Amino acid sequence: TIDATGQILLPGLINTHTHAPMVMYRGLADDLALMDWLQKYIFPGEAKTVSPRMVRIGTRLAALEMIQSGTTTFADMYYFEEEVGRAAREAGLRGVLGQTIIGFPVPDAKTPADALTRTEAFIKEFAGDELITPVPAPHSMYTLDEASLKAARQLANRHGVPIIIHLAETEDESRISREKHGLTPAAYLDSIGFLSPAVVAAHCVWVGPEDRVLLAKRGVKVSHNPESNMKLASGTAPIPAFLAAGVTVGLGTDGAASNNDLDMFEAMRQAAFLHKLIARDPQAVPAAAALEMATIGGARALGLDGKVGSIEPGKRADLILVSTRGARQTPMYNPVSHLVYVARGDDVQTTIVNGRVLMRARRVLTLDEAAVLSDARALATEVGKAVGRPPV
Q1: pLDDT given at position 75
Q2: Residue 223 pairs with which residues in a beta bridge?
Q3: Is the per-residue pLDDT at 177 higher than 90?
């Protein structure tokens, strides 16, 4: 039995967009716009440091952080994604995990065709897994040609799985798309038959009214990443308009290299605050809407709402217990607003996935915390040496 006195029982939180191994780049390149961040630091750094070992160690660190902060399901996009799957399975987390397909040589694939082959093998390895849903993850419309995007779409169709992509994250992406195709990023993807209810589109910042109607019509799911969008100064996704149009919206942290943490409580709070500020309307995204995006909204976005996202008979036991006993949590008048505006990841006391207790009384049971941290610190020294920025 678990003593839940003075705690709130919640469905486990669902992170609809991250890059788990990128915890190893946490704080490596801050205060930059996305394209500078990617092209000057992240892509070159990854070329030197990404390996199966790096992905495995990074994912175990990310899994530890997620378990400790109440995330029970995460959607991922990275390289050597089979290592992400194996580490997530070891930790006991649920995951919709995307093997990256991108249009230039990367550590696990020289070409998009190689990446597609790797994705097929990845999907076959984890087919039928109770916790892991393996999916294709084409990086974006600006890093892939039409043929590769279509091939990724067809691969998802063949296996009946979702497909994850970055969409309309920056003004640069929108400009590139208009110059090259005469269409917005969303309209271009629709023109090649890419959009469907199986698409989980991360960011969706630079989308006008016509694009919002299009995404709603096609049933595309949106992953809102308020913290990375603010940190990289990419812009603000029109979340109140998406919700009004009936678009399913989940919340994501993005990778720890652009956030810089994986705390979904912070993502909820920032989502609520950001849209109040932009709209100058305290009701723009109320606490209940933020909590919904982090739970059942995220489950709907990932196609898992029949299993998780709410506490109902017949659903899997993906649950967390959140303390309300500390000075910061006292007093409590409204549990919903308390969870969004007061609670933090380290208030989570117990994390359960699929009925298995992953953390009890703040002690993670599925991972050796000391070993995970030791391995990550040793790897960070190697990463820092490779990119000329050693950790402190």
Answers
A1: 99
A2: 202, 250
A3: yes
